[in-house]
Amino acid sequence: MIPREGNRAMTVTSYSPLAKLIHWIMAAFVLSIIPIGLTMTRLPSGHLQDNLFEIHESFGATIFALACLRVAVRLIRGAPPPYERLRRWQRISASAVHRLLYVLIIVVPLLGWAGASAYTGTPIPVYGLFSLPALFQKNQHLGETIFLFHISAAYLMTATLALHIGAALMHGFIERDGVLARMLPEGWGERLTRSLGGPRENRRVRRST
Q1: From CA 108, how far away is CA 54, in angstroms rounded?
Q2: Is 0.70 surpassed by the pTM of this model?
Q3: pLDDT (0 to 100) of residue 10
Q4: Looking at residue 189, what is its pLDDT?
Q5: How many CA atoms lie within 13 A of 189 on its CB side?
Q6: What end-to-end distance do the CA atoms of the chain give, in Å?
Q7: Taking the mean position of all CA atoms in its chain, how far away is CA 144?
């Protein structure tokens, strides 16, 4: 998307401040909900496990709401084009990972909501403030089946997220090519690159001369 400032066209090279804010809030929730989910399923039944389940469900509802908001912002505000210096295979893989993450951050919470609804047949409390309605009447067998899909999708999301984080760290700390900077707050990317000695290409040029 190419917004206009007066009569002069400006090419979008970075994500909007709102898109960045949603991205980092979502990242905090997703990186928190994964260990909570792994922990709660390994605990014996009791008060602690119940509390973790409630936190997990509340975080899942938050992630779903943020995912819907993020998709809306992307459709309305657009997104910068692929970084021009990326190789073709990098562009294809980055696009595939991003699309898969967009699908999973919506599908995984929905499967969790559906599974919990079917398993208990009761509304899902969110932070003790309100409840999401049950999507199904109580059917524990159906709930267990949906939870299998929820868990499988969650593992896939974790693996995809690991690829996404790994690529971001590579671009930010090894390649230092500006890709990570597009999702960082204004000015942070430049400061990070300078603190690491400048762009990698510049360092190669200095060494060759």
Answers
A1: 16
A2: yes
A3: 42
A4: 67
A5: 21
A6: 40
A7: 26
> Which among 125, 104, 121, 133 is positioned nearest to 54, based on CA atoms?
125
List of residues 6+ apart from 157 with CB closer than 8 A? 30, 101, 104, 105, 108
* 65 contacts 130 by C-beta, under 8 angstroms: no
Nearest to 27 by CA among 81, 70, 91, 77: 70
The Cα 138–Cα 118 span in angstroms is: 5
pLDDT along the chain (209 residues), means of 10: 39 79 95 95 92 96 96 87 81 91 96 96 95 96 97 96 92 81 78 71 47
**Alpha carbon distance 29, 127 (integer Å):** 14
